[in-house]
Amino acid sequence: MEKINAIGRRKAAVARVYLTEGSGNIIINKRDLGVYFPSSILQFIVKQPLSVLDVLEKYDIKANLNGGGYKGQAEALRLAIARALVKINPEDKPALRAEGFMTRDPRAVERKKPGQPKARKRFQFSKR
C-alpha cells in the first residue's frame, strides 16, 4: 500500500495526513502523539475514526499540523484521518459519517465590526 494523503481543517488549524500500513504509530510534526497532545482527551479525539473502524494498530500516521489552538488542531487531524480512511476503503464512509467525522465544522471566529469593541459587544450607551 502506498502513502494515502488527506487534509483536514477546523477554525484556523490545518492538518495534512499521510497514512501508510504499519503498527499504529502516530507522529505529528516529528513528535509522538503523546508528546504533541499530552491531554488524553485530545489523544482520544485524534484516535476516534481509527477506533470506530477498529484499525488502531493497522496504520502508521504522519501528520503536519499548523495554525489554530490545540483543540482545533486535534479536530482538524480527526477529519483528515477520517478522509484518508475513506480513500482507502469507501465502504467505511457511512460508519464515519454517522459519528460525524466526515463533516468539516464550519464554525469560525466572527469578525470584529467597526465602531464596536468586539464582534457583538457594544460600547456602553450613555443617555446624557
Verbal overview:
This protein has 128 residues and is α+β, with helices and mostly antiparallel strands. The protein has one domain: Ribosomal Protein S5, domain 2 (2-Layer Sandwich), CATH 3.30.230. The chain has 4 helices and 5 strands. A hairpin with a 2-residue loop joins strand 1 (4-10) and strand 2.
Task: Measure the end-to-end span.
Answer: 73 Å
The Cα radius of gyration reads 18 Å
Helix and strand succession?
Answer: EEEEHHEHH
Q: Order of strands across the widest beta sheet?
A: 1-2-5-3-4
**Shape designation:** elongated
Number of strands: 5
- What structural class do the secondary elements suggest? alpha+beta
Number of structurally distinct domains: 1
| Uncertain runs | none
Largest sheet: 5 strands, mixed
Tally of contiguous helical segments: 4
Please write out the topology:
Layout: E1 4-10, E2 13-21, E3 26-28, E4 31-32, H1 33-36, H2 40-52, E5 59-66, H3 70-88, H4 93-99
Parallel strand pairs: 3-5
Antiparallel strand pairs: 1-2, 2-5, 3-4
Helix pairs in contact: 2-3
